[in-house]
Amino acid sequence: MQQCSIYDKSLKFSRATYGVLVLLSFFIHNKWLVLVVAILAIFGAFSLKLNIPYQLHALVSHSVFKKKKEPIQKELGELNFVSAATGVLLLIGFLLLHFTELTNFAWIYILIVDLMIFLACLVGFCVATLMYILLKKIFTRKNQTHN
Question: Could you tell me if residue 29 is left (phi over 0), alpha (psi between -120 and 50 degrees) or otherwise beta?
Fold first, then answer.
């Protein structure tokens, strides 16, 4: 699989930014902010260059503070999957808020997604990464048995 170099602190900052924005949207009950965060996360799935909070943190920490931190290697598919999963889960929450009468359920759902975002950011345990690893193992086994 294709590897890419990322800055771990910038990735954590990106996740923290998404988490704080989603939490803010809950407190002010603004479904449109949920949509904005979902779109930003989905953009980040296409390219790391489109992950605006990541790029902002990387730019500021390397040019303004002159921190020379070495990047780590991560699998590009994992990063894209995690970002897409976050965006899609938030988009589902927005759709529940916008098109159904289940607003209390939708906000609880969004808070659970936000908890998973903060779990990945603060603790380092990402449910979407775990899903990616399990799905990758399943599909590689199926491909090996068919060959």
Answer: left
Whole-structure pTM over 0.90, yes or no? no
Q: State the DSSP code for 100.
A: S
pLDDT, tens digit, for every residue of 100-119? 999 999 999 999 999 999 99
Helix (H) or strand (E) holding 40: helix 31-46
In the chain, the number of structural domains is 1
At residue 107's C-alpha, the angle toward residues 105 and 109, to 5°, is 70
Q: How far is CA 43 from the centre of its chain?
A: 10
Beta bridge partners, 73, equal: 5
Q: Write out the residue range of the structural domain in which residue 18 sits.
A: 3-146
Contacts of residue 5, defined as CB under 8 A and 6 or more positions apart, other chains included, come to 71, 72, 73
How many other C-beta atoms lie within 10 A of the C-beta of residue 22?
Answer: 25
6, containing H or E segment: strand 3-6
